[in-house]
Amino acid sequence: MYAVCVKFDLKDGKTAGFMPLMRDNAQASLRTEEGCLQFDVLSDPSKPDSVFLYEIYADRAAFDFHLASDHFQSFDAATADMIAAKDIQTWTEVAQ
Hints:
- This protein is α+β, with helices and mostly antiparallel strands.
- It has a single domain (2-92), classed as Alpha-Beta Plaits, CATH 3.30.70.100.
- Helices cover 39% and strands 41% of the residues.
- It contains three helices and four strands, in the order βαββααβ.
- The chain has helices at 15-32, 60-68, 70-79, and strands spanning 2-10, 36-44, 47-57, 83-92.
- A four-stranded antiparallel beta sheet has the order 2-3-1-4.
- The longest helix has 18 residues, at 15-32.
- The radius of gyration is 13 Å and the shape is globular.
- It starts with a strand and ends with a strand.
């Protein structure tokens, strides 16, 4: 299992434009990427310009496939000017 957590800090006034694009990207990932097992888009009502993603992939290769996908590339280009800061963390499952 490969988990990805992303925190976006959006520029003022960009949330309304960002969220539909983010939801479309998440839905396309779940619908078209066999290795995308979960893709949650979360927000805190008290921090409307912050968005948190929790994504689960079968493995690193599945995440790399996601990054190369047309829908992600389109999302990334369309939202680049909306994002003030982005923090990405990746996690791998600990063998038990």
